[in-house]
Design a protein that fits this description.
The structure is a homodimer of 415-residue chains.
Chain A: E1 4-10, H1 12-15, H2 23-33, E2 37-44, H3 48-61, E3 64-68, H4 79-87, E4 91-93, H5 95-107, H6 114-118, E5 121-123, E6 127-129, E7 138-141, E8 147-151, H7 155-174, E9 178-187, H8 191-197, H9 199-203, E10 209-216, E11 219-228, H10 231-249, E12 253-256, H11 261-272, E13 276-280, H12 286-292, E14 301-307, H13 310-315, H14 321-327, H15 332-345, E15 350-356, E16 371-377, E17 382-388, H16 393-411
Parallel strand pairs in A: 1-2, 1-3, 3-8, 13-14, 13-15
Antiparallel strand pairs in A: 4-5, 6-7, 7-8, 9-11, 9-12, 10-11, 15-16, 16-17
Helix pairs in contact in A: 2-7, 3-4, 11-16
Chain lengths: 415, 415
């Protein structure tokens, strides 16, 4: 019998359609990785009887109940008092929690407030879970057969508490078998085309390997899972199948497991001691943001010129005005000039440029919304490519940045 | 008594953390607009007993049960057979559904397949709901006190069926009253401090106004809700309370309802016909991305220089090398130079600059990770401010960009 979990998300704002609950989704994925099965998720509002009855029902069905939300310092936050009521216990000031909250305030040069001090008062029967990111501590209740865990609803706070405090405890307590996951990461190929290329391989996957396609924007991840007792055997089995799959889809594979494309690109640059700079038009800085979200990117990222305005293209990038007027800012000629210019001006080994029509306005019959030119220049090689993405502004921005990173991956050679 | 709805989302892929369920969220928002209260949402897998027990429990609690998912043509889709089983009825070919499915295939130049033909067989006791976007018809069951509605899980199919078929029926049947929502948006003040400033106001809120604090990264939204019969009276009541609250928190309020801060900033620039440019260091392009995610931002956004590298600060922004060596790149002096320089180089009315230590590396005792300087320059006024954010790289990037927009909001004057 697998260990069964239920997730309870609490908050009126979730039920009014105001806030999209991504917490339950994230938690589900994390529990799946350690073999804990989420059988049910429940979302309820800040209403006493609803919350108490959800606790009661979940306790009957599950080994673990994970609760998010309702831990703020204001009066509409009911989770903590209701957990105390549910377990029929009083409150106690948790000295370590108070210390953590006080330090958090000190680090921001502020004094702790009374509502925040009260956040350190916890139900007597719980173990405090440290919240490094905020003022509401997590709580762990283990006095009955079902474990209750309460965490704040702010996603990054919850994720930190899950990662540092909850998952290690759950893993130790419930997970005895071995689960092997291997993720193959692809970019630049749609899910259905990928599935077609892999159809024979997939139908011959041996027991106990399971395959899942995990599509996300512009990328598809293939997750192989094997559950059993013998770690070495499972790892070998998975590795064998990965080795069979790769040649079928080689040029789309950019990494494995948790490798993000921007991290892979950064590692390629680091390894060959090369630097990069961008000239971004329609992506408006998003490509630079992706690359600089990787810690340590200052070792290879020189900077960017976000040339949104026509004049910035002419003055800061010295794009030829006549050519831009003739061919338009979204053209092979201009994007090539931009890549070469940013490489020169910011003194980098590689220059990448993007110019396109993100929309909703600005499209023409010849160049509709979603038309994007991307160029790569490294001093020896210069490549430009045209893409036709979507009608949606935000999607076009994100697809373009991803395609630019992929163009680097394909064209960069470390020599 | 308000009309009560429950939403049941069905699908294994939701519980593994594979697919993020946005359907329940979207449905909640739509029902809220016609005064139907979602009291609970449940997510379960493709498991017969789970599905049947969810139907049974929901029927006891709710007037309306909305179900998404499990209507595909494959064998793991259980919703339709289980609805028939639940109501104890057989299947009947629905001629109109068959016609619609056949036409959908014809429009794509394809012949209808056998599994798709079977999708036109519906439980005898249901009303078919036309699905213009796909092959799985929606179903409406009204023979008991609780209405059951079943829809496909593909978001755009579900949304189309909700909009054309379900919401008009529900609206006619259940909605007579009026709901008024008003959201006050704040930035630069933590939830607890905001709550302290509003404590007296909050405790004097008259019936039937309810208040909710909705915190998200660096921002807190205050939502006032009033339900009743007399629209004018409710609107006046809410407006009165908003007018009382604003003076208590005025400098933190940047907008109302769906106004995003980057949109508010853009509108301020548009209205006064002024342009802006950024010099970003630690935010690496994220501030530019925020501003350019707003459609039409090319009217006021000139561009940015992302000066990650030391030399880019010196060459492209002409920051004084001696001063930078003396004071460090993260200093009042350098950030002021950057704001003035980008304003000049990109020929904009306003320049904003950010220089800080995003982390995880690069911190010192004097300037720990999270130290960020932001400057604003408009030709007459020049302001710089130091912030201490967090230990987390991504949070520091996002907090900094938000603080920069807020600094613009506070310092910009349209004259």
């Amino acid at each position: 019998m697998p260990t069964i979990a239920e997730i309870i998300s609490i908050g009126d704002e979730l039920l009014y359609g105001q806030t999209l609950d991504t917490n339950a989704h994230w938690i589900s994925g994390q529990l799946d990785l350690i073999g804990i099965k989420v059988k049910r998720r429940i979302t309820i509002g800040d209403v006493e009887e609803e919350i108490l009855s959800a606790f009661e029902e979940a306790e009957k069905r599950a080994d673990i109940v994970l609760i998010t939300g309702g831990l703020g310092p204001t009066n509409d936050d009911l989770t903590k008092p209701l957990l105390a009521k549910y377990f029929n216990v009083g409150f106690k000031l948790n000295a370590s929690a108070l210390d953590e909250i006080t330090k958090l305030f000190e680090s921001k040069g502020r004094e702790i407030t009374e509502p925040n001090r009260k956040q350190a008062e916890l139900p007597e029967n719980c173990t405090k879970l440290t919240n490094k990111m905020g003022t509401a501590p997590g709580m762990w209740f283990e006095e009955r057969n079902t474990i209750f865990v309460s965490m704040p609803g702010v996603p990054y706070e919850m994720q930190e508490i899950m990662t540092s405090e909850v998952l290690p405890r759950l893993s130790e307590k419930f997970f005895s078998g071995i689960i092997i996951h291997k993720i193959i990461r692809t970019v630049g190929i749609p899910e259905s085309t990928l599935a077609e290329k892999l159809i024979d391989w997939e139908s011959n996957l041996p027991y106990p390997i399971r395959l899942a396609y995990l599509p996300s924007m512009g990328q598809v991840k293939l997750r192989l899972t094997a559950i059993g007792e013998d770690k070495k055997r499972l790892e070998d089995l998975v590795q064998e199948q990965v080795a069979l799959a790769i040649p079928l889809i080689e040029k789309y594979v950019y990494g494995f497991d948790s490798d993000e494309l921007e991290k892979v690109v950064g590692d390629m640059l680091l390894k060959s001691n090369k630097s990069i700079a961008f000239a971004e038009s329609c992506t408006g800085g998003y490509l630079s943001h992706m690359v600089t979200s990787v810690p340590g990117s200052s070792a290879y990222f020189k900077g960017s010129i976000v040339s949104y305005d026509y004049d910035v293209k002419v003055n800061s990038l010295q794009v030829n005005k006549v050519e831009m007027e003739e061919k338009g800012a979204v053209s092979e000629e201009v994007v090539l000039q931009m890549a070469k210019a940013v490489r020169k001006h910011l003194n980098s080994d590689i220059g990448i440029s993007i110019s396109g029509i993100a929309g909703p306005g600005g499209g023409t019959e010849e160049k509709p919304v979603g038309t994007v030119w991307i160029a790569y220049a490294d001093g020896e090689k210069t490549v430009a490519k045209k893409f036709n993405f979507s009608k949606d502004r935000i999607l076009n921005i994100k697809f373009s940045a991803l395609a630019a990173l992929n163009m680097f991956r394909i064209n960069f050679s470390s020599n």
